[in-house]
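ok here's the first one, seq then struct tokens
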Amino acid sequence: MPPTLSERLPRLVMALLLAVIALPRAFAQDDDFRFSIGGGVGMTGYLGDANTSNLWQNPGWDAEVHFRYLNNPRWAFKTSLYAGSLRGDSSEMTNVFPQGNTYKFSTIFYELGELAEFNFFNFGTGPAYRKLKRISPYITAGVSLTLWKTDGKTGAAFTLPFGAGVKYKLSERWNLGFEFLMKKVFTDRLDGAQLDDPLGIKSSFMKNTDWYSTMSLTVSYEFGRRCATCNYKD
């Protein structure tokens, strides 16, 4: 005599539960993530009227936190917040200011920026058909706002950051990174009012504007899993 529905129901429920548990695991390797959050530390450099040639003459420190939207394995968009120090001393330069004056400065800056990143390889982990790489160099550029205080005066200016880096995937969610950015500040007062056009040359895009750099080691964690698919993803 075949089993009744009441006898078969517990087996069907058990089979359904096992399928619900097993199905996400079966597709987990095909998943990736929408977001990542992380931070890093490193060193800064400065180029301006108090240092015209050697970016690492008076290095400072930097720390950052960031949030990324991972559009696909090639493109990401990063919101970052930096804090760091910058220093310069014109007495260490070969150039001489009028009357032989020398200037030095030290400041703490804060920078909020939005950058786009392009990975040279499809970055990620997963099955071979997705052609993903655990390591990828990338280029990045964007816009940011920098705030600082030098000689007791607070300043702010738009900044143009651009640079390159490399990412390495430690595991499905964890990444290591190294990034170098040059940042053009659209002002000549980052190093203080005394160094605002000390040679009397009219300011332009390439003259009498200050630059600084950040070079950071980072770690990030990915979250917000996408829906699994069996199709190739670019």
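and now the second one, same deal
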Amino acid sequence: MKTIGLIGGMSWESSKVYYEHVNTMIKQQLGGSHSAKVVMTSVDFGEIEKLTFEGNWNKIGDIIANESIKLEKAGADMVLLCTNTIHLVSDRITNSVAIPFFHIADATGEAIQNDGLQKVALLGTKFTMERDFYTKILQAVYGLEVLIPNPEERQVIHDIIYNELVKGVLSEKSKAVYLEIIASLEKRGAQGIIAGCTEIPLLISQSDISIPLFDTAKIHSAKAVSIALGQ
């Protein structure tokens, strides 16, 4: 079994889900008392959040590159970044280490393609929804049509993520708002919803909506487990 390297802390609320996912999946596949071989490094999200809103992506890249180097030195056989938004600086990982890096948008694109869907909606931070670092992979590599919410909806989704979800606050009111936005995206033709922020599945689950919900943290974790087991 290969060792999975995780860069967490963005936020730790979803990073703990990654650890749970990879261990649960290893146990399901190998049985008995098996668990995943994991090396995790975790950053201070307060620092990352501040730099994000300042637009200081170069500094964020420096931090993430340094964390990936730590994982490689610690014996990790691969790197996963346990967040969607900070994949904006993922090239800093690939330029810093020799071990493989698995992009969350690639894992998600594969899962959507395997389900045979063509048009999907992307929910996440404004950075993820409005910049092209994520959507260009889904469009160019996997041939998907990607819908994003309107500007007002994007702001609401973004604010709930930063003011509530990353702090572990799960509100029924916010859940209702998300479901209303998802319903409007379904009316626009969305065949599935990408939870393009790893905290969103803490609030919204598949049982809440009638179309497929792509839990990016779970999909990303499954990809790592598949590689770790040589599949």
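notes on #2: The chain has a mean pLDDT of 96. The two ends are 11 Å apart (CA to CA).
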